[in-house]
Every structure is written in C-alpha cells, then in structure tokens.
Amino acid sequence: MRNLIAKLAPKLALTAAVLGSGLGAAAADTANIWVRADGSNFMPKIVDAYNKVHKDQIKLDIIPNAEIIPKYGAAAAGGTAPDALSLDLIYTPSFAASGQLEDITDWAKSLPYFASLSPAHVKTGTYKDHIYGLPFSADASVLIWNKKLFKQAGLDPEKGPTNWAEIAADAEKVNALGGNIKGFYFSGNCGGCNIFTFTPLIWASGGDILSADGSKATLDSPQLRGAIDLYRSMVKKDLVPAGAQTDTGANFFAAFAAGNIGISPSGAFAIGALNTQYPNVDYGVTFLPGKDGGWSSFAGGDNFVVTKGTKKLAVVKEFLDFAYSLEGQTILAKYGSLPVRGDIAKDALKDLDPRYQIAAEAMAKGKTPYSVVFNDLINSANGPWTQMINEVFFGDDVDGAIANAQETMQSIIDQAPQK
Amino acid sequence: MTTIATTTAPPRAKKLVGAGRRQWIGLLYVAPAVALVMVFFVIPLGMTAWMSLHNWPLMGDHFYIGFDNYVAILRDTRFWNALKFTGYYTVIVTIAIFAVAFPLAIFIEKPRPLANLYRTFFFMPAVVGFASASLLWSWLLNVDSGLFSPAAYELGLIDKKFNLLATFQPAFWSIIAMVVWKVAGFTMIILMTGLQSIPQDLQEAAVIDGAGPFARFRAITLPLMRRTLALALILSVAGSILAFDQFYIILRGGPRNQTLTAVYWIFNQSFVSFKLGYGAALSMVLLVILVALSLVQLWLLRKPEGLD
C-alpha cells in the first residue's frame, strides 16, 4: 500500500498541479476599460504588453472622443459602465462631483512615487480633498516652427521665437515668401485648441482666465487683451490662412503638417505624428512664450478613473501599477504620450526624439484650469470661450465680446450644481 | 358596432361571430402598428414629460423639481434667440423651397421629352441623408480645400479667397442653398402629384371660357391644390423647425452662435451640458409650439366651404 502511494504520489501531485493551475486560470479576472480615440495609438500597446505578462487581463474599448462622456453616462445609469476609464483630465472634477467614481485616495497616497506624478493631473483628479483620478497619459502645449521655411525667409532655423514680438516678426518674414505659404496658424473656432495653446501665452505673462479654484472668470485681465492683440495683428496682416476663422479643430495639426505654415502653437502629440506621418517636415519645438519672455504650457492628457463599486479594483490597480513602471512609461512615451511620472520621465524618453524633452519639461510645469463646468465654459463649440475667441480674433467688437464672455462664463459657474 | 355584436350573439356562446369577430381581427391586424407607436412614440413622450420635471444630470442621482425647468426656460435668452432664428430660417427656407419646387413641378408635370430624366435629376438630392449632404457641402464650402472659393479665386473672379462660412449672411444663405438643393426635389414630387390630380376638363373648360394661364392658375390650380400645398407646407415647416444636422455639421452654430437652432440648443443642453431634464423640458416646449403651428396651418389651409 505504501508502495502504491509512493508510486501514485508524483502523479497525484501532477494532477493537483494541473487542477490547481486550471483553477487558477479560471480565477483570473478581466477588467474592462475605455479610452477616448485620442489614446488609440498608445493604449492598445500598453494593454497588450500588460496582458502578455499578467494572469489578470484587461479588455480595452476605444470610444470616439465626442461620444465617450455621454456613452459612459448612459452606461453608468444602466449599470454597465466599464471598470475604469481613461478620461480627458479636465472632466475629472465634474465626474467626481457626480458621485460615480471610486475614491482612491488611500491607494494613490500609498504609491511610493505619488509625489512625482504630474501635479496638474493630480490637481484635476482631486475633488473636495479626495482623489478620484490619477494621471495616465499626458500632452503639453508647445510652439512648433518649420525650419525649412525659416531658412528660406532668412531666419535662424535653429532658433524659435521666445516672446510675442518675435512670433509676430518671424511669422511676417515667413509669410513674405508668398504663394501658399503663411506665417502663422491657429484654429480660430475651436475652444479646446485655444485653451490648450492660447492661454499659456497669457499665463506666461502673468494673467489668467479663471481664478485658481474655478469660481471666478477673469477675462478682463490686460494680459488676455495683449495676447488677443498679438493674434489680431497677425490676422489683420494676413499672416493666417482664411480657413483658420472657421476651423473647429479639424485642421489644428494638419495645416502645419502640410508644410506651408511658419509657426503654430501645438501639442507634444505633434512630435510623434510629424515624425511618423510627415517625415519630410523639418521642425523645431520650443515653449509657448510670454509677452516679454518666460513660458508656460497647458498640461493636458487623461486621468485614469475607476467606476464606483467595480469588482475588478485589484486588476485595475495592477494595470495602473504596470503603466507607472519604467516599462509602462516607456511604452506610453514611444507611442505618443508624455510620461506622467516625473522621477523616471528622463529614462522613459532617453531613446526617443530629443524634442520630447522640451515637451516633458513643459509638462512638468504645465497648468490646467480647474472647473466642474469646464466643458460648458471652454470646450463646447457654443460656449462663451469659443464664441469669444472667434469674435476677438476676427470680429470688430473686442471689448464687447470679452465683456459678454465674462458675464456668460460667470453665470454658468454660478449656476453649476456644485462648486 | 360593438352593440350589434353583443346583441346578436347568443350570451352562452363565447365564440365571437360577425362584426365582433371582425373587430378583434382588425385589432390584431393593427396591433403591431399600435405597439410600434406605443414603444417608439407614446412611451418616450411620456418619459420625456416625466424627465422634464426632474433635475436629471447625465451621471448621478436625479430628483423631482416640479416645474423649475420650465421656469428656467423663461429666463433662457439663448433658447429664445435660437427659437427666433429657427423661425426666421423656417420662413426663408420654406419660401425658397416653394419658389424652386413649384416651377419645377409645373415644368416636369407636362409631357415633354426626357421628362423622366428631369424628374430623376431634380429628385436625386432628396435621397441623400441630411448628414451626408451636410458633410458634402461643408467640403464644397471650405475656403481652402473646397470648390466654390478656390475655384472663384483660380478663375480670377475674386482676388482673395472668401470664407463663406465666417460671417452670418453668407453662411446663412449657403445653408439655404444647400437645403433647397436637397429638399426642393421632394417637395416638387408632392406638388406634381397634386397638379396631376386636377381634372384636365376643368382646365379645358376654362380655356374655352377664355381664361389666361394666370387666371387658370389662380382660379383652378391653386384652390384644387390646397390639400397638397397644406401637406407640403406642413412637412417643410415641421422639418425646418426641427433643423439641426446642417447647422451642426457645417456651421457648429457659428459664426459666433448666430445660427443656433432650437433643436441644436436642446442637443447642447442635453449632451454637452448634460442637463437631460432641462433638455426634456425644452423638447416639450418645442413640441407644443410645433403642434400649435401645424394646427394653425391646417386651419388656414382647410377646404373652403362650398368647394367640390
């Protein structure tokens, strides 16, 4: 008998091991996450990399940018929301205010690198001193210029503009090349594009459009007026293509990529897109300057939020931990997102285009306005910000447009359900 | 009918016979249609009315607030401006559609060579969806990469490319042109059927009596087409009051919110600001306006006494 057991023991052990691993596999969890289409380059890559080396799996859905918010809202109402969501960071306060997100304060603060996470993301991810969102992907606004056109115009192709006067002068010189070539480009009817690329000019000069807590609109600052005059003067001198006036953002990047624009404010995303899709455009990257120098940047990108009551919290945490590892940050950087961990950003970017370093530096000091009604104020195609920028850049009544936007913005803030 | 059925059928016999049975069969026949109307119209309408009495955010809890949403509408100057613009657009576009569709209907109604080909040509844009047509036109109207402005520039007609969509008047008339292009063919077909239903002998008798073309149009064609005109008018007015796609896709309500229509504002409040309850209240207000307008039109175009 003992003999028999001795003979059978290895087999039994093997069977147990097989059963055990089988049971283990069955116990593996799959968490469902959503990302907006802006993340369609890097998100599948990092999910694949994670799934390859982890027992628990992530199922990824990519949702069109404009649909992700209503779709998530409908899914949350119907109890079918994904376990987690990579969400444009500016929405985090209003999402947190709605009570649909898991409070992840303790976990976030337990992360050893918590203090190195992008401050702009963490700020927007915090609501009433609780953390509901953590940084996931990042994009900073920068100024890009076309080196070939600079050279043709007799400018130093290696030196981008460092203040407003230089922007205007350089744009004018490039514009003088004539033909289809224009000095400057911006999307004149896109609120989101201009909060990203126009407000840093104001911030770098010491002004702002909203108070720090988002409770007051401050459009009456002289810095805003100055930045408006810079854009207006370029429009008046015909340095900007006629299509800019009605561009709702479709051409935000494409105009520069076509190679006919001297200078354009843009985002770090442009570096990856130009390198891979438009290798013939030789360009430089610099900071968005203030009136007399200095610089600022809008810190954009996504926060990672967790749906309240999800049963897959452990998987979601495991995935986010992976994304924050050097491996994860490198994958994100390689496919178009800046690193969100300041302490390892340099390492994550070391094998990539050196121009990313400027964007990463911009990101580290980047700023994001905080508001629970950001969409109503800024991003909405019919909101006060979009209406104002179109009027002040191209219209006749600058003061009226500013006053009108100031009043409308303040009334939207005052009517917001929670502040 | 029910009375007949119950009195003629013996009370003991549960089997339905005669008219009663026919009535049940009839109900069965219409049941699918009734179910569709219930599921896709009556129930959603009831839900919209119910939602309009709530503070109903996209996310989070909703709660009953009575008529607060309706009170808020009274102060919503953007909605009233949008409604005013919608009214202005409806009047202009309806006149424009009829001004194009009526002559076209008269043109293609008469037997002439290639009549079917003309009909097809004029009608074709009507089969394109509004969204697709809007996308097509937004390309045609694009100042840099479209057709009109670059072509005019290349031909030397203008010395600087002109952005049609940047200021109100050109943008508005561009939309009118697009809608007339898209809708006139459909209105033309409706008017053509009306024209064809006018008895030929009436026209001939009038000719014999010495009536000229204008007199015949005023005394015969117009009165006999009242019903057709009413149908075409109500379709055009209702469609225009609900206009959304072209303003959303081509203009985004711009330039500077001057072309926000009522439905666009409802969309904005519901799916940009995520105030679903308020959007529902706005929808109810628009529904009441639309029903009232349609009733007024029907009353104005009712058949005058003594005709026929």
From TrEMBL, chain A:
InterPro entries in alphabetical order: SBP
Region forming the signal peptide: 1-27
Any one GO BP annotation for this protein: maltodextrin transmembrane transport
GO molecular function term, any single one: maltose binding
GO CC annotation: ATP-binding cassette (ABC) transporter complex, substrate-binding subunit-containing
Keyword set includes Signal: yes
Gene3D superfamilies according to UniProt: Periplasmic binding protein-like II (3.40.190.10)
Designated name of the protein: Sugar ABC transporter substrate-binding protein
From TrEMBL, chain B:
Parts of the chain that traverse the membrane: 24-51, 88-108, 120-140, 171-192, 228-251, 278-301
CDD domains hit by this protein: TM_PBP2
Name of protein: Sugar ABC transporter permease
Membrane topology note: Multi-pass membrane protein
Main location class: membrane
Keyword Repressor: no
One GO CC annotation: plasma membrane
UniProt key word Transcription regulation: no
Compartment list: Cell membrane
Gene3D superfamilies tied to this protein: MetI-like
Origin: domain of life: Bacteria
InterPro entries, sorted: ABC_transporter_permease, MetI-like, MetI-like_sf
GO biological process, one term: transmembrane transport
Pfam families tied to this protein: BPD_transp_1
Protein family (similarity comment): Belongs to the binding-protein-dependent transport system permease family.
Alphabetical keyword list: Cell membrane, Membrane, Transmembrane, Transmembrane helix, Transport
Domain ABC transmembrane type-1: 83-297
